Amino acid sequence: MDSRRYVMKAKRTPAWYYFAFGIIGFLVGLISASWTSRHSSAMVSAPWYLSASIVGVGLVVAWSAWQVKRFADGKIHKMAPERSVNTLIFAQSLALAASALAGWYAGIFVIAIQHTEVAYFTTVSWQTAVAAIACLIDLGLGILSEFWCLMPPTGEKEE
């Protein structure tokens, strides 16, 4: 058996990842919404409970990251190391997914807002605007949660 310890090398997510995911999501949402509006198909929107669920997931991840921060500050005395690593992974994936989804809903919104004379498109534009805002809230919660998670100092031996 190999006696070397494997150390996870966690890095902060670069800011340009969020912009890239947002732009890709925007383009995909724009293309899909324009295709569905041209072919008289039902446009994908987000019901109100989905926006609430999106924010709910962000709050759960932020609460877990707050617990990791409290452990790092010494206010909580016992925590499994896997929990802090998993929370960091959840925080990073939450922020990236929220960035892509915010772009997706913004792309749909751009197409739907052009047809607000029809009641269906008015509803779709409101729902996608609220969903995009919910995703932006999640993006902020994911970035904040990532900073709250404990990162090992560079260049020091781990105990």
From TrEMBL:
<feature type="transmembrane region" description="Helical">
    <location>
        <begin position="15"/>
        <end position="36"/>
    </location>
</feature>
<keyword id="KW-0472">Membrane</keyword>
<feature type="transmembrane region" description="Helical">
    <location>
        <begin position="48"/>
        <end position="66"/>
    </location>
</feature>
<dbReference type="Pfam" id="PF11377">
    <property type="entry name" value="DUF3180"/>
</dbReference>
<dbReference type="InterPro" id="IPR021517">
    <property type="entry name" value="DUF3180"/>
</dbReference>
<protein>
    <submittedName>
        <fullName>DUF3180 domain-containing protein</fullName>
    </submittedName>
</protein>
<feature type="transmembrane region" description="Helical">
    <location>
        <begin position="87"/>
        <end position="113"/>
    </location>
</feature>
<keyword id="KW-0812">Transmembrane</keyword>
<keyword id="KW-1133">Transmembrane helix</keyword>
<feature type="transmembrane region" description="Helical">
    <location>
        <begin position="125"/>
        <end position="150"/>
    </location>
</feature>
